[in-house]
Amino acid sequence: MFKNIRSIYERDPACRSFLEAVTCYPGLHALWAHRVAHFLWVKMRLRLFARILSQLSRFFTGIEIHPGARIGRGLFIDHGLGVVIGETTIIGDNVTLYQGVTLGGTGKEKGKRHPTLGNNIVVGAGAKILGNVTIGDEVRIGAGSVVVRNVDHDCTVVGIPGRVVIQRGKKLHEAWLDHGNLPDPIAEKLADIQNRVLELGKHLGEIETTKKEASSEKK
Hints:
Structural class: alpha/beta
Strand content: 15-25%
CATH superfamily of the largest domain: Hexapeptide repeat proteins
CATH class of the largest domain: Mainly Beta
Radius of gyration: 24 Å
Order of helices and strands: HHHHEEEEEEEEEEEEEEEH
Distance between the termini: 90 Å
Number of strands: 15
CATH architecture of the largest domain: 3 Solenoid
Strand order of the largest sheet: 3-6-9-12-14-15
Mean pLDDT: 87
Shape: elongated
Number of helices: 5
Largest sheet: 6 strands, mixed
Number of domains: 2
């Protein structure tokens, strides 16, 4: 319990006191409710009561966590509205989820059908991780990304569908909350095309100049 409260202090500069963390963070309330619901689901086998508790938590916090999900220590759900965590999801330690994140399944398959997240991961606002995929440790997933494939350790993923744009570069834990400072592969590609067009225009201009000079010499 205290590790979850400490994670709020460490990752949210807006948190000013223990009392504020306990009373004003729905992500913490949803996590506490999940701990009880998970116990009812796994240990007591009271599946209906577990689901009812999770739905009550969803009503009060806006965060939906299935009782069957396995969640490690230090999870921080910031803001949290619209977060969905599916039944067979597995989340490691020190993971941060922002509002609108979905850890969901695909289709109607049985068994393990939701994501597995490692340790020290940041998932940006509105990102979706779908299906039985594995996300390695020290990974950042940009806001609005859709991830449907496995991601190796120490990577940055952006886009739809999500693709790795940084892999085993600078250690992510040095600034691993800076999820707003992510590369934009589309903008980079457009800039590259623009540079190529400028180079082509310059080259054509040189050809035209050469032709005019050759024409002048003939005259």
